[in-house]
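As promised in the previous annual report, we have extended the structural survey to additional targets. Below is the entry for DNA-directed DNA polymerase.
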Amino acid sequence: MGYVIPSLTIGGKIASQDNTSYEGGAVLDPIKGYHQHPVAVLDFQSLYPSIMIAHNLCYSTLIPPTDVNCYPPEQVTRVPGNEHLCFIKSDVRKGVLPIIVEELINARKKAKQEMKMCQDPMLKSVLDGRQLALKITTNSVYGYTGASSGGFLPCVEVATAITSFGRYMIVETRNSIEEHFTSSNGYEFNAKVVYGDTDSVMIKFGTMDIQRSIDLGVEAAEYITSKLIRPITLVFEKVYLPLILMTKKRYAGLLYTNPNQYDKIDCKGIEIVRRDYCLLVQQMMERVLHLLLVELNLNGAIEYIKGRITELLKNEIDISLLVVTKSLGKIDYDMRLPHVELAKKLKQRDPGKAPAVGDRVSYLIVKGMKDQKQFERAEEPLYVVENNLAIDTNHYLDAIKTSLFRVLEVITPNPESLFSGDHTRISLGGSSSDSALSKFMKKAERCLGCKAVIKKPPFCDHCNDYKRKQVILQKLNESRAKEVDYFQLWSQCQRCQGSLHQEIICDNRDCPIFYKRVRTGKVLSHMEGVYKSLHIEYTP
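The corresponding structure token record, generated without further manual editing, is:
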């Protein structure tokens, strides 16, 4: 192309650059709430690459401030919001970056066309990988110009110009839509942009009909595109109904591309699959969103949350739902994190079985002494089950609250009430055999019938024969139910292991059935002790 690229390396290393910063894309303030009208989403296709082509933004077209007056005004593009940045228009001299980006876009279009015509699954997969690689490469050109620290060829002026045009366009798009789609122009309602982020806008047209919202979305996209410089294009993407809009970059909605059937629940910025949250939090978030978005059942969501909180505080949640697993990194040993402290603890107990760097460490947070730090209370899940340690339910309640509160605060007037009240005033189950006081205390024997303290188990002198028979029958029913649970879990493990006749040797701590089986077996062992005290012969 006849250009010489300067080298910014010294001795094979990138020369140090100034950490010059610039403003990124625009994020319009969201109208928070539980939107129960269809919200259409319009998206700029390849916004930053398109801006580079449309406005001829490049190293080679950037005009130094001292040379601007050397060009006629009609040959110069001034950047909105940064009027001191000027570029030569493409009809005078086309820039290198626009040429490169255009070739990449055309190559991607060709790959996608070939993919549509391809019948061979293997070749189709290769073409899909190619078009994705071309997409990433195209979008990375903008980042290449903005990498002022450690970049090979940074030019912050170009990056600033790109984001300035992007911010200008998103604001102008909002203004144009709200000015054009009004009742005074013949439309049923006045349109309102409820949110916008970098390259997309969300519009509430006022209609309750999804198909009408789709049609208006397509019309709005065509209207805005007609006012833009090619190849910048705004296209209709989807409709949300309903939409929970919380904060910037944080929302969830039921996504429609077809008015007859929703595609999926679409979430942005919400903790559903994060590994630093336990499975209980993820499951609760998924269920609450399903109740709010699919079933439109706010009362059902509230009752579900209260019910799960009650189960947690009563120690009725399966322990596998509370386990958090994190990778043990080399640098982690310098930090006091729960999984790191547990790894040190396990090394003291058994150096041969201690986790090494790169291993994943599973842990639970148990109750401890007053003012004891959280990282000091991390414990291995199997150790918790075998020693009947008490789970710190308040820790998990806080995790649930942190995750769900953002969703609930834009829907209900008093979300705090879901995490306090009668359903949280529960006597917590479980005891910590590893606590300091427990080593100096002896557990008193209690009557199986009336729970009175007694010297000789199992019953006190005040419980008559009828009461005793009732208790025995109740214990038998409980043990039979636990037996069924245990053998169902055992059978699942046998099938997974591939043998119905051998002892289970599985030690997969990531499997939810593992802890259920161990815990149920421990309950059955306890029941055998109860039967011995009742002088009943019992064979599982």
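The chain is about 40% helix and 15% strand. The longest strand covers residues 234-247. These points will be discussed at the next consortium meeting with the crystallography subgroup.
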